[in-house]
Structures are given as structure tokens and as C-alpha cells.
Amino acid sequence: MHSHSHTLPRATTTSGLPTSRRFFTAAALGLALLVAGLAQPALAAPHATYSKDGVSFQHPADWKVAQDELEPDGTGMRSIDLEGPEDASIHLMFIPFMSGQNIETLATRAAEHRAEMDKGPAALEGPDKITPTGMTSRAITRRVGGKEIKGVLQRFGYVSEGVAIQLESRFFSIDAGNGSSVNIMTQSMADDARQLDTALGRVMDTLRYRAKR
User: Fold this and answer.
1) Same domain, residue pair 32 and 97
2) Each residue of 52-77: pLDDT tens digit?
3) From CA 111, how far away is CA 108, in angstroms rounded?
4) Same domain, 35 and 101
5) Which residues form the signal peptide (predicted)?
6) Stated pTM of the model
7) Is residue 1 situated within a structural domain?
8) Using a CB cutoff of 8 Å and minimum separation of 24, what contacts does 132-139 make?
9) Domain, as residue range, for 33
10) CA–CA separation, 25 vs 15, rounded Å?
11) For residues 21, 25, 30 and 32, what is the CA-based torsion angle, rounded to 10 degrees?
């Protein structure tokens, strides 16, 4: 990189302030305006509201509800999938007849299901061949409506065509009253965990579920 030097123009005096002084006064004013702007409260990120058949919540505007359907087994269970940037996802399972679920058991079952899929033909052969690189799991909590909700965070990874991929999944279960509950599972690239956590917080903080009997 070449270094360029510039000769500063000589300050001249007008009927007002000297040029150099006027420059620094303008700079100081600009800095003051910048500081004042930073002192203003940050504008909330835009969000959208989803409301349908007894379920409502908010989510970031750059997320979308990709699926909302009743399970075909006639139990009244309902699943809603949200999709966000960089293939991040939030899965909600609404259960009208059960509460007080063990979140560690749910997370373990999800990990077992994922391990079975990793053994399938699509994962072991062809251009989509992947090699799992292990998983870690730990307990987490999240405050929702003044209550501490227990959860599980799983980190796992794969190698595909020499490229290492790290992902995260979070699991929570919320009692929705009257013997009903909502199971929540997320998945995202590890590098995008903060953005997903923001979206998850918006969904969980505003989630309302009125089970149909």
C-alpha cells in the first residue's frame, strides 16, 4: 500500500470564525449529534404476528411460518414449523392432553432419531455423504413470563466433502394450562445461534395456546 501525503490548506479568516476553528466546531457538533443518537433507545426489530385456531405468537419479520398442521392420528396434536435465515428453524408441537414432560427425555429421543438418520443410505452414500463428529449436551434455562423454563442444548457436527459443519439444537417444554403443553425444538448453524436465540425469545415470550377439547 502506497502512503499518500496531502498539504493542508492554510486557514483563512472570514467575517466569522477562522476556517480551522469553524472546522473543529462543526466536527464537535457532529460528534455531539452522534453521541445523542447513540443515547436514544434502539428501535425494536420488526416482527410479525401469527394467530390461528387458538395459537398466537410473534416472530421476527425475516422468519416465516412454513407449516401448520394437525397430526393425522386424531389426538389433536398440532405442529408448526418456522423457518429463518441460513436454514435456521423452530419447531412447535402443541399437545392438548399432556403437561409436565421431561425435557431431557425429549432431547435424548431427538438425538437418537438423528443418529438413526445418520445411518441411512442418503447419509452414507453419494454426494450427500456425511460423517458425524460427536455431540455434547447440557442443561439450560430460559425465563418466560417470570418463570424459569428448563431446557437442553445439544451441539453436534458433521464433516461433508472435507468441510466441518457445527450445529445446535435447543429443547424446551412449556405447560400451557389445563393439562396441555408446547414442546419446542430449534436447529441452526452454531455461528447463527445468537440470531436464532433472539427469534426463539420472541416466540416463547409471546406464545399463547388454547387447546381445543
Assistant:
1) no
2) 999 999 999 999 999 999 999 999 99
3) 5
4) no
5) 1-44
6) 0.76
7) no
8) 132/156, 132/157, 132/158, 133/157, 133/158, 133/159, 133/164, 135/111, 137/107, 137/111, 139/104
9) 8-43
10) 16
11) 140
